[in-house]
Amino acid sequence: MLYNLQVEQKDKATLTNIFGSKLLKTLGVEIIGKQGLDDTKFDAFKNIDELISLKNEMPETKNGTSIKIKKYKNRIEITAKLEKSGWLASDPSIGTTTLIAASLRKLGWKNDIVITKHNLPDQKSVGKKNKFILIANQINIKLDKLEVPKASLKNDYWHYETNGEKNRNNFFRHCC
Question: In the beta sheet, which residues pair with residue 114?
């Protein structure tokens, strides 16, 4: 990940910044151009409990849609609102939940990962093929009380990008 910031960074990193950076490092993403990453607070997560603890320490959002994680013996639940205008379309929650789930898999979690309190009203609202569905199929994420439709990732869905905002380097084929 290359940071080419045109704005000053805050003197003190927010928990959101630290958490996101640690998730990326857990997945082996090299972050270039971001100040302060030599600080140990930005190191990759060492284990699942450390990841869950830091996420759950983060303060609630003003709109009440904070993502929280609960670990049980045979499943991990991630509470996250994924609904926008009646459909599975809420970014940044989709990106955050899939990044958390991928990190949990990288750290060795083999059992169920279930998204709860997603606010999706019915099966139709899930859709058939979108970014979340494609990633959920790759790393086996479930939706509470709804089915994740089967969808396969075509080899050209993500590609090397040299001019755009989002670049991908075979991430999901190697991370989980």
Answer: 77, 142
Closest CA to 176 of 139, 135, 127, 125: 139
Structure tokens given for 128: 């058939």
Cα separations in angstroms, 99 against 5, 11, 163, 172: 22, 26, 23, 10
24 in any annotated domain: no
Instruction: Identify the CATH number of the domain in which residue 61 sits.
Output: 3.30.750
pLDDT one-digit tens code per residue, 22-42: 999 999 988 777 766 667 888
Q: How many CA atoms lie within 13 A of 8 on its CB side?
A: 3
Question: Is 121 part of any domain?
Answer: yes
Q: For the chain, which ranges sit under pLDDT 50?
A: 169-171, 173
113: nearest Cα among 121, 122, 104: 104
| The pLDDT value given to residue 92 | 86
How many domains would you assign to the chain? 1
DSSP string for residues in 14-52: -HHHHHHHHHHHHTT---BS-TTTTSGGGSPPSSHHHHH
pTM of the model: 0.83
Partner residues linked to 141 by β-bridges: 113
d(CA 75, CA 96): 18
